[in-house]
Write a structure and sequence with these properties.
MFS_trans_sf, transmembrane, mainly alpha, transmembrane helix, 24 helices, Growth Hormone, Chain: A, single chain
Length: 572
């Protein structure tokens, strides 16, 4: 797939990537590139032209590209959410049936029917459920580890060559991932069930969902003004919740016939949604096009100087911290400190150290503000909630003796309850709070209330002895489901526009690391709860509630920087 090529002045430099003159000089004129070319043309007019006409023309162009982008992106999110949620329940049931059949084939073959299947009621035993938890949990672990390692290089590439080429790599990756899982499940008499773990290798191409969603959030941020960002994230939340409800209900109904039917339909919808990436316009320069001609010219001049001096600045910094090769060679080996003497003997390690510094330098901006670090912890720990949700259907089915189809249908009502939260309650609270406080402070206050709801609701889920007590706990937890969108909106105001792609990459990396932690910890704790039995089956949710409490402490320690509040005052 050909990558978008941009002039060096129009991109953010990524030190560890070299720029070829050929790629800088080439300029593709496909349909999506024409949007970007037109956008640049609007904002590069002569100063003697009428300013009002230029401003109206530029605004119309931006709004046209933004509308096209948002329609496509909403279609992608809708297809992805519908497909993944529709496939989740059936995939769990197929995993369970395979693990159950393999268990009884070894210990009690008489329980296997003539069609090769075991009644679902016989699959709720501890041994089968423990194996099922291991397969699902460690699959998430391997996905998370690989995605975390790949997120940074793909994130830097997105800042260098554009968002669209990177997200388009997800198309073959998702196809390969689903193909591997399908082969293992369909030929379960040939492949062991744990072979589904190999599907994570598909994420080597494009970085997987971590990179894809980082690009999606970055593209949204590129075309959305800061004061509209929280509302936009809420709209995406409404789309996701509505899709979760509809697809879970339909999937549960189809599962009563055959779990393979909703699984194949769900995966087909996911692939169709990923294919929409082909139609996305490039958004890397949209935000800069919002500025006036004069400010844009100043910025380009600054970037020209900055790009010209960046390599020298990095080399100067390295010379200050470490002697260069000529210094090392001019000193006798026995006079060197041990570390420098070792470096002189092993230049490869010195080169690797220098390359690592260049690799990580673009991400150093997160350390200049302690409030950013506090907010980033929320993304790390929040994945524990997602980790426990992986097992929610299995938890309800095992603890309350329901079928997986019934449990899947029950959990579908949780996102349905979130729709009025995102559509009416949170926007109403936002409007009310904006009368007395700035946008960033409003987001912070709502985030604090949301984390309390998450903590209490999750604890209630783990302690609920019956469905009657589980329902109100789910309601309370649902009331906090806007937490991550609020934090995402708040943290975006604390960085520069040109740093947003790297910020969202860091966020997705932290969530990938959180996935790794959750997949190991939640799987282990859930298995322990299954071993202990009784009320201890909800041990994983008790642990998750404790983690939410720690995040609440971090969020309560956040103090908005004066720069952010000053920026908000100017906007108001």
């Amino acid at each position: 797939m050909a990558a978008d090529a941009h002039d060096p002045l129009d991109r953010e430099d990524a030190p560890f990537l070299t720029s070829s003159p050929e790629s800088s000089a080439s300029n593709r004129r496909t349909g999506d590139q024409d949007d970007e070319a037109e956008l640049k043309h609007v904002y590069s007019v002569n100063e003697d032209d009428d300013d009002d006409v230029d401003e109206r023309s530029g605004t119309q162009t931006i709004e046209r590209i933004r509308f096209r982008f948002m329609v496509t992106l909403f279609a992608m999110i809708l297809a992805f959410e519908v497909g993944i949620v529709m496939a989740h329940g059936p995939m769990t049931r197929i995993y369970e049936s395979i693990a159950c059949r393999q268990y009884y084939a070894e210990y009690d073959p008489r329980q296997i029917a003539a069609d090769g299947q075991v009644p679902e009621s016989l699959c709720k035993i501890k041994e089968v459920q423990t194996e099922l938890a291991a397969v699902k949990g460690y699959k998430e672990f391997f996905d998370g580890v690989l995605s975390a390692f790949l997120a940074i290089p793909y994130g830097l590439l997105a800042d260098r060559i554009g968002r669209k080429p990177i997200i388009c790599l997800s198309i073959p990756a998702f196809a390969l991932n689903t193909g591997i899982m399908l082969a293992v499940m369909w030929y379960s008499d040939i492949f062991p069930l744990r072979a589904v773990w190999a599907s994570c290798l598909a994420w080597l191409l494009g970085g997987g969902p971590v990179v894809a969603f980082a690009i999606i959030w970055t593209m949204m941020s590129d075309v959305t003004p800061a004061d509209e960002r929280a509302a936009m994230f809420f709209r995406f939340g409404v789309v996701s919740m509505g899709a979760d409800f509809a697809s879970s209900a339909v999937s549960s109904w189809m599962m009563t016939w055959d779990p393979w039917l909703p699984l194949m339909i769900g995966w087909g919808i996911v692939l169709a949604g990923v294919l929409c990436a082909i139609t996305l316009p490039e958004t890397m320069h949209v935000s800069s096009a919002r500025r006036t001609e004069r400010s844009a010219s100043v910025e380009l001049a600054h970037l020209a100087s900055e790009n010209g001096d960046q390599k020298g600045a990095i080399q100067k910094e390295e010379r200050q911290m470490h002697p260069d090769d000529s210094d090392v060679d001019s000193v006798e080996g026995d006079q060197l400190p041990f570390a420098l003497r070792s470096a002189a003997k092993r230049p490869f390690l010195r080169r690797m150290y220098s390359r690592s510094r260049q690799y990580l330098t673009p991400y150093s901006f997160i350390f200049r503000n302690n409030q950013i670090i506090l907010l980033l912890t929320a993304f790390l720990v929040y994945r524990l909630s997602r980790g426990s949700s992986w097992f929610l259907v299995q938890y309800i089915s095992t603890r309350y003796k329901w079928t997986l189809a019934e449990a899947n249908l029950f959990t579908s009502f949780k996102p349905a309850l979130s729709i009025p939260l995102f559509l009416f309650i949170l926007p109403a609270l936002s409007r009310h709070l904006l009368r007395s406080m700035h946008t960033s402070k409003k987001d912070l206050q709502l985030a604090r209330v949301s984390i309390i709801c998450l903590c209490l609701g999750t604890l209630g889920i783990g302690l609920s002895p019956s469905i009657a007590t589980l329902v109100p706990s789910l309601l309370v937890q649902t009331a906090g489901s806007g937490f991550l969108d609020l934090i995402r909106s708040l943290i975006t105001t604390m960085v520069k526009q040109e740093e947003t792609a790297r910020l969202f990459t860091i966020i997705e990396i932290l969530q990938a690391v959180g996935n790794v932690i959750a997949s190991l910890s939640i799987t282990t704790v859930f298995q322990l709860g299954l071993e202990l039995g009784g009320s201890w089956i909800g041990l994983a949710w008790m642990m998750t509630s404790t983690a939410f409490a720690l995040v609440g402490v971090a969020v309560w320690c956040v103090r908005l920087p004066p720069v952010v509040e000053g920026k908000r005052e100017a906007e108001v």
